[in-house]
Write a structure and sequence with these properties.
Blueprint lengths: L4 H8 L6 H5 L12 E9 L4 H11 L2 H4 L4 E8 L5 E8 L4 H10 L2 H11 L2 E12 L19 E8 L5 H19 L3 E7 L17 E8 L2 H12 L21 E7 L7
Antiparallel strand pairs: 1-3, 1-4, 2-3, 2-8, 4-6, 5-7, 5-8, 6-7
Helix pairs in contact: 1-7, 3-6, 7-8
C-alpha cells in the first residue's frame, strides 16, 4: 500500500505524519524487512570506481544474497568520483556474522577479493543501522518502482547523546511535515544499531550514533529544488525540545547517490 496523494497534501499543510504512515511509502511488508543494515562508503583510488562496480556487479551480488547478506543498493556518489556507496542488510544481528563469515571465507571472495581491494584506499567508513520503527527499513528484495535516471538521497543526523527514540518522535512530528512540503518523499528511516560489532574483521564507526532518512527523486534537478525549498523554511527548530537540539546544531550530512545498473534500490 502506497501513501496517498491526499496524505502528502495533508502533511504539506502541516499535519504530522505518524511512523506507520511514513512506512507505507516503502511498499514493503514489515516481515520482509532486514533488521540490520550497513551503510558502506568506500574511498577509491583515482579512476577506479568503474572497475570496482564491474567486479562487484559481476561477482558479489548473488553470492552474498544467497548467504543472507542482502545487497540492497549500489551507488555512485554524485559529489565524489572516487567514492562508491552501498547498502547491505541482514535479517538480524545474529545472522550477520554467519553470513559475512561464509562470504569472506568462501570461494567468490577468495577469487575476486584481491581485485576489489586493489581499487580501494579505505573501506572502513561503515555505519551499522536498524529501522527506526516497524516497517521503516529496507526490504531484503526492494521493489524497483522508480524510473531510470532517478537518484537516492541519504541525510544523516549525528545524534551525539540524544535519545534515538525521542529524536525519531520529534522528526515525525516537527521535521517531516516540512520535508514533505518542500518536496521530499522519505521511504526509509534508520538509526544506529548500538550492539557491539559482531564481525570485527570488518570495522564499523561504532562511536557515531546517527539517524538517517532516505528519499528518492526522479532526477538531480528535483533534488536541487527540494534543497532550495527547504533552506527557505524558517523557525522549524523553535518547538524542538531542548534535549533533542544537540542533534540539530550540526548540519546534517547529505549523500546524493546514483544507482548503478544492477542496484535493486533505485
Amino acid at each position: 500500500m502506497s501513501l496517498s496523494r491526499r496524505d502528502f497534501l495533508e502533511a504539506a499543510a502541516g499535519l504530522s505524519l505518524t511512523a506507520s504512515a511514513l512506512a507505507t511509502e516503502s511498499s514493503t511488508p514489515e516481515a520482509a524487512q532486514d533488521g540490520v543494515v550497513e551503510l558502506r562508503q568506500y574511498t577509491l583510488r583515482g579512476g577506479q570506481r568503474e572497475a570496482l562496480i564491474s567486479v562487484f556487479e559481476q561477482n558479489f551480488i548473488e553470492s552474498q544474497n544467497g548467504l543472507g547478506a542482502h545487497v540492497l543498493g549500489t551507488f555512485r556518489d554524485l559529489d565524489d568520483p572516487d567514492r562508491f556507496v552501498w547498502l547491505r542488510g541482514f535479517r538480524d544481528m545474529a545472522a550477520r556474522p554467519t553470513a559475512l563469515g561464509s562470504f569472506y571465507g568462501g570461494p567468490v571472495w577468495h577469487a575476486h577479493g584481491r581485485a576489489a581491494n586493489a581499487t580501494m584506499i579505505d573501506s572502513d567508513n561503515v555505519l551499522l543501522l536498524r529501522p527506526a520503527g516497524p516497517g521503516l527499513g529496507f526490504a531484503a528484495q526492494p521493489s524497483e518502482t522508480a524510473a531510470s535516471g532517478g537518484i537516492i538521497g541519504a541525510t544523516l543526523y549525528y545524534l551525539h547523546d540524544v535519545d534515538a527514540a525521542q529524536f525519531t518522535r520529534v522528526f515525525d512530528q516537527t521535521i517531516l511535515p516540512h520535508l514533505v512540503s518542500a518536496g521530499a518523499r522519505p521511504f526509509a528511516r534508520l538509526v544506529a544499531e548500538e550492539s557491539p560489532n559482531n564481525f570485527p574483521r570488518l570495522p564499523i564507526r561504532e562511536r557515531d550514533r546517527t539517524f538517517v532518512w532516505f528519499a528518492r527523486w526522479p532526477d538531480v534537478a528535483a533534488e536541487d529544488a527540494f534543497v532550495t525549498a527547504f533552506r527557505k523554511v524558517s523557525g522549524w527548530r523553535d518547538s524542538i525540545p531542548d534535549a533533542v537540539l544537540p542533534a540539530l546544531m550540526q548540519k546534517p550530512e547529505r549523500l546524493r547517490l546514483a544507482p548503478t545498473a544492477r542496484s535493486v534500490l533505485r
